[in-house]
Amino acid sequence: MIGDFKPFFMRGLGALVPTLATFAILVWAYRFIDENFARYITRGMVAVYALKGEPHHWLGIDEEDALVLGDPVNEWDEKTGRRLTAQYKTMIAQPRLGESATKDEETAAGIVLKDARSAAMWELATRKWRFFNAIGFLIAILLIYFMGYFLASLIGRTTWRVVERVIRRIPLIGTIYPNIKQVTDFFISDRKVEFSSVVAVQYPRKGVWSLGLVTGVPLRQIGAGDPRALITVFIPSSPTPVTGYTITVARDDALELPMTIDDALRYTISAGMIKPDGPPEISGDAAELLIAGKTRRDTVEGAR
């Protein structure tokens, strides 16, 4: 049973890692939107709600919630010894005006405290009842969607080009923004790189074959300086094919392979272990090399 532990463990790990990684990416995306968009939308909602007065009684916001959910301060209740919060102090605050205060001043102070109490209670309501945050998150999603819809129009594209032109002229920001935009466009943009076919080229030197994906014609300057028919080939890295090298070779030097793009990517990701056409025929020298390697591994494992 001990001997079966490693293969079963690796099989279970192979099944769980993609699932867990997918959920981790989704959680990261949710937190990113929540912390950078939804949170501020929720705060704006709180400010609007506070204009209408204190939360409805069915939300059940009281002083106990203020002590539990509020922002702690360096003060403690003398009777209970509990730490106070900023929201609790706002809720129990009373106008403190001198005897010379006029009626209008007392009224103004009462209005200020009432507004502050409403804002504090609504802040507690968003912390106690998560559906307020969910509303802010959904509004953030809709705003991002409508922004994309606007940028898809002629006016939106023109406006955004002007904005980007201004950003690129800002010192320091103008040098960082283009690089970040290239990365985000690669992963997020709906304009994907289209590969036409799969080829094998001798790269990085003659005698070494690398799998490549044809992306199209070469740069105009390169094509003008070489009379041969040239093609541009992307050589993906293994096991992460999102990175690699872009080379330009003669069409006659590229061996076209009867493979689909998905098969080529699977072959690259698996480091050559997943082959679309099954195991190839192995020459005598290559077979002896594989047998010698397996013998050395068996000897080492036996010594352990």
Question: Concise description?
Answer:
With 304 residues, this protein is of the alpha+beta class. The protein has helices at residues 5-50, 63-69, 86-92, 103-128, 131-151, 154-168, 173-188, 220-225, 261-269, 284-303; strands spanning 72-76, 83-85, 197-202, 209-216, 230-236, 244-250, 255-256. Among the domains are: 7-133, no CATH class; 197-279, Roll (SH3 type barrels).
Overall outline: elongated
The chain-level structural class is alpha+beta
Low-confidence stretches: none
How many helices does DSSP assign?
A: 10
What composes the largest sheet? 5 strands, antiparallel
Rg value: 33 Å
Give average pLDDT, whole number.
80
Q: What is the strand content?
A: 5-15%
> For the terminal residues, how far apart are their CA atoms?
18 Å
The main sheet orders its strands as: 6-5-4-3-7
Helix fraction by DSSP (H/I, runs of at least 4): 55-70%
